[in-house]
């Protein structure tokens, strides 16, 4: 790269939001530079390959029903393998299979029968089935309408008892939202629940990082620069660590929330939730199922024998077990986690090898109610911000926010090139962010 480069638009950060934004700007004919500080694309969605294992940087599942995913991703090329629908809840000594209530209501009934007193069952089950049916079938725009509330309030309002929520749903949702109280926006919950009911949770053959790599491969040659950290925004573009300058009419900051604030100090702080993922190699498959195992009454969130789901994740004959814990776990917590894994899988974990630990302090931006599902991206003339922290804490939210930034850039640049009398504002496009 020469000392100074001139392009139409610079996008800072090649996570899902930056990739979507850059793709849409390129598709509109702009000359774009996508600058990524690290050596690989994907941000929080990255994977390593080591000794025959695929190690995602956090235990993450890929949801095929997200509208932005369906629009942008060649799902067949990812060679996806699905988790079993629903999840298995570990409650004391019991392992209760909680099937998707819209697909296998009988299984759910059986599991819940083991959990709760008889008096609760029919009402809670009917309420959960009604909520699920509505979330799955009504148009998404209806789920976004009306006043927001917390997920807990919404579940209560739908007729679910707190006991049922705490025993059955909260342990699973804690692993999704990374907060145990269910303070997360109900609008976001309904959209996530809908996506889970309508799609499949999957793992790509080459790891979760294959998704952003596919998007990066679709960019025109020369658009993406890796190892190109942006140090600051300048009057007419950005300055990179190392002294290079890029001039651009539009700069889109598509980093995580803290890095975005470092570049754009006017942004408000965004509270975030942390998660730790630990990957273990096990000499024998400890559990035959392709399911998410949810820790109903212990220190873990979710765990799964991910090589049962996607055999490419481990060498033949051994298993890869991936487990998430809340927060940034220290050594003591990891040791406790290993003891708990022995309980959950009902096997000794002494021969298991801990092969990677990923601590992600800014795993998800908090989305407490009331939460706007999509925020404008234009901060000042020529300056834009996008990312999951501007929409919803999900792959869908990141992609939708990147798409929105691209629309706003294109609108502004076309307006700037058109005489005021002829300027047109494009019709608002879909801002689905959940
Ligand atoms: C463990 C874990 C599990 C998750 N599970 C799920 C799940 O199951 N389903 C789901 O929908 N979502 C999940 N998520 C959330 C999802 O991964 C994120 O919402 C999404 O990937 C965020 O994308 P982003 O582009 O907004 O930000 P990021 O992925 O954070 O990308 C920002 C990029 O900007 C780069 N950058 C930062 N500063 C600079 C700079 N100064 N110059 C240049 N580049 C810079 C970073 O290196 C990074 O590549 C999970 C997240 C984690 C951590």
Helix content: 25-40%
> What top-tier CATH class of the largest domain fits best?
Alpha Beta
* CATH topology label of the largest domain: FAD/NAD(P)-binding domain
Count of DSSP-assigned helices: 13
Find the count of extended strands (DSSP E, 2+ residues). 20
Shape: globular
- Distance from N terminus to C terminus (CA atoms, Å) equals 38 Å
Low-confidence segments, given as residue ranges, are 419-434
Specify Rg, calculated over alpha carbons: 22 Å
Specify the CATH architecture of the largest domain: 3-Layer(bba) Sandwich
Explain the overall architecture.
The protein is of the alpha+beta class and 434 residues long. The protein is 33% helix and 24% strand. The chain has helices at residues 16-27, 67-72, 105-115, 121-137, 140-144, 151-157, 162-177, 186-198, 210-217, 257-263, 306-309, 331-345, 395-417, and strands at residues 4-12, 32-35, 47-50, 53-56, 62-63, 81-82, 87-91, 94-98, 201-203, 224-225, 230-234, 237-240, 245-253, 272-282, 293-295, 302-305, 319-326, 353-365, 378-380, 383-385. A hairpin with a 2-residue loop joins strand 3 (47-50) and strand 4. The chain is globular. Mean pLDDT is 91; it is low at 419-434. Bound molecules: flavin-adenine dinucleotide. Residues 12-18, 35-38, 43-45, 58-61, 63, 229-230, 254-256, 259, 275, 277, 360, 363-364, 387-388, 393-395, 398 line the site of flavin-adenine dinucleotide (FAD).
